[in-house]
């Protein structure tokens, strides 16, 4: 019997007045699988992820996480998902430690888990620093720590490295690679960095104008046309746009 | 038991809110210090009872003056400075505004 998919998106539509953000997307993600949603700004990545997160309701279609839909299983789902939005705002005058402690309390977790997370995200030295004084990379690492604090079965990261310098980006990648190697967490990562998708995810989903254009492993996607050197080339050949547009 | 309280989300939210306020000098001043200062300042400003002085011309062939003070906790003190002057002079003072009112003796006849 095949395992229950971690995430199952079936023929989902979502519009905002005249804007059709997501148009008939279907997607299946298996337990432990890391998937990158790759597309330019306005492609519908964030809307799709927000529907999976339960922040938005689809107009049509169905979304199931570990076999459960948001309707009727909200409490259970909140316990098993971890998420990091495009921008995270903290209480400015709380320290890194106090912020982790606050979020741990939402899951009845104590200081042991906070210590683990602080070490995982490499912010031990910033334990007593106010969040307002953290750099962009440190803030994103803290956001990742908060997303992971409840041992999530499903992790949803919306452009976690946008606006970060290459060093800070690599630090985030390292944390996520560790997670992939040591847990059975499934992850959806939205990004418009091709390198990030390649580094972290075995499965790539290319999305534009609310539709999935292609999905598969990097090797599989590039083998379709020998002239393609990378995902950027593939994306340009599919849409006529660049990923960073 | 203490750990259970500390891990409780309501406790942590309360602590977070309290810390946020304590650590922000602006919030401390405008939220706590300023209203107290305003209350003290306004309290002092309005704690004095008003004192009203009225100049009264008392029509009399005699001359001289005296004062009558009526004390009232709510309305404050009212002092009437009574000056005994003849009618003609009283009319002139009233026109000049140096007296507020003219009191004439009651003619019982």
Write the layout of secondary structure elements.
The complex is a heterodimer of chains A (245) and B (109).
Chain A: E1 7-16, E2 19-29, E3 34-38, H1 45-53, E4 60-65, H2 70-80, E5 81-84, H3 96-105, H4 111-120, H5 136-148, E6 154-158, H6 166-182, E7 186-191, H7 194-200, E8 203-208, E9 211-216, H8 218-223, H9 231-239
Parallel strand pairs in A: 3-7, 3-8, 5-6, 6-7
Antiparallel strand pairs in A: 1-2, 1-4, 8-9
Chain B: H1 2-6, H2 9-22, H3 25-45, E1 51-59, E2 64-70, E3 77-85, H4 87-96, E4 101-103
Parallel strand pairs in B: 1-3, 1-4
Antiparallel strand pairs in B: 2-3
Describe the structure.
With 245 residues, chain A is of the alpha/beta class. Chain A has 9 helices and 9 strands. Chain A has a 6-stranded mixed β-sheet, with helices on both faces. In chain A, strands 2-1-4 form a 3-stranded antiparallel β-sheet, with helices on one face. In chain A, helix 3 (96-105) crosses helix 4 and helix 5 runs parallel beside helix 6. The longest helix of chain A has 17 residues, at 166-182. The radius of gyration of chain A is 18 Å and the shape is globular. By secondary structure, chain B is of the alpha/beta class. Chain B is built from 4 helices and 4 strands. In chain B, a hairpin with a 6-residue loop joins strand 2 and strand 3 (77-85). Classes of the chains: A alpha/beta (245), B alpha/beta (109).
List keywords for this structure.
heterodimer, A: 245 residues, alpha/beta, six-stranded mixed sheet, three-stranded antiparallel sheet, 24% strand, globular, B: 109 residues, four-stranded mixed sheet, 4 helices, rod-shaped
């Amino acid at each position: 019997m095949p395992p229950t998919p971690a995430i199952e998106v079936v023929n989902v539509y979502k519009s905002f007045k005249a804007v059709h953000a997501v148009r008939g997307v279907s997607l299946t993600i298996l337990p432990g699988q890391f998937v990158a949603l790759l597309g330019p700004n306005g492609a519908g990545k964030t809307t799709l992820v927000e529907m999976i997160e339960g922040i938005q309701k689809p107009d049509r279609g169905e979304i199931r996480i570990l076999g459960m839909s948001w309707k009727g299983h909200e409490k259970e789902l909140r316990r098993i998902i971890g998420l990091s939005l495009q921008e995270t705002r903290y209480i400015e005058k709380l320290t890194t430690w106090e912020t982790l402690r606050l979020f741990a309390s939402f899951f009845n977790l104590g200081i042991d888990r906070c210590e683990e997370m602080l070490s995982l995200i490499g912010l031990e030295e910033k334990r007593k620093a106010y969040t307002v004084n953290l750099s962009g990379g440190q803030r994103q690492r803290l956001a990742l720590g908060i997303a992971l604090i409840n041992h999530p079965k499903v992790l949803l990261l919306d452009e976690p490295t946008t606006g970060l310098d290459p060093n800070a980006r690599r630090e985030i990648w390292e944390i996520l690679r560790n997670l992939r190697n040591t847990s059975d967490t499934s992850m959806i990562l939205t990004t418009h960095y091709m390198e990030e998708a390649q580094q972290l995810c075995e499965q790539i989903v290319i999305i534009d104008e609310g539709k999935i254009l292609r999905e598969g492993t990097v090797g599989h996607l590039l083998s379709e046309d020998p002239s393609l050197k990378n995902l950027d080339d593939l994306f340009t050949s599919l849409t006529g746009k660049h990923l960073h547009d | 038991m203490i750990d259970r309280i500390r891990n409780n989300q309501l406790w942590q939210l309360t602590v977070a809110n309290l810390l946020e306020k304590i650590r922000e000098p602006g919030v401390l001043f405008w939220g706590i210090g300023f209203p107290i200062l305003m209350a003290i300042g306004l309290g002092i400003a309005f704690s004095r009872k008003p004192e009203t002085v009225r100049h009264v011309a008392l029509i009399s062939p005699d001359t001289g003056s005296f004062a009558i003070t009526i004390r009232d906790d709510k309305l404050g003190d009212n002092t009437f400075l009574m000056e005994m002057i003849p009618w003609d002079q009283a009319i002139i003072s009233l026109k000049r505004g140096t007296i507020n009112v003219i009191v004439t003796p009651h003619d019982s006849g």
